Here is the input.
Amino acid sequence: MALHVRGTLVLRACIRLCLVTAALVASPFAAQAEWKPVEKVETYAISGQSGLELYRSIGQNGPNAGIARAIAQTNFKLTWTRDYQARAGACVLVSAKPKLIITYTLPSPSSPLPSAIQKNWEVFLAGVSAHERVHGATIVDMARRIEAETVGLTVPDDPKCSKIRVEMTKRLSALSQAQRQASRDFDRVELGQGGNLQKLILALVNGG
Here is the structure.
């Protein structure tokens, strides 16, 4: 995400948050799943004694997001243990247990801040963290939807359980693409004119 402040401290629209995911959607499948994700928080160091200096340091040190830098980042690793069984010439996905690890990467000042700046920073960081948690929640929602839409899947005339894997790939791809698009839409609103993240950034930069 490009993190630049120029002239009158007007935030440029090219700021991007790097991550996967989208607006928080309540999952209708939560009740059926017993598993829970593992959530981790990592930090990267920034420097500065004012809001503007901290923000500039984020632009220099934030996680890589393609052609720009990110303020924060939500990554995940999702793996599955699946039980395919051949039944009467068909193949059935009997069970699928996910292992989901979500990692949030957030900025952290490397030295103590003046009291007034510290308060502004805490508000900023809380808002950014909340934004990333929304991304995390939607990743969990995606995993639960994958579980709900694939467990019990039956493909006829598939005694070697090969055709079912092709069908699984199609379903997983569609769910993943939907989540990615929703993520982009969510960030566009948050970083757009009057958006929550835009307000947080401007408050930090203009706050001292």
Observations:
- Strands lie at 5-6, 10-11, 18-19, 38-46, 64-65, 68-69, 73-87, 90-109, 154-155.
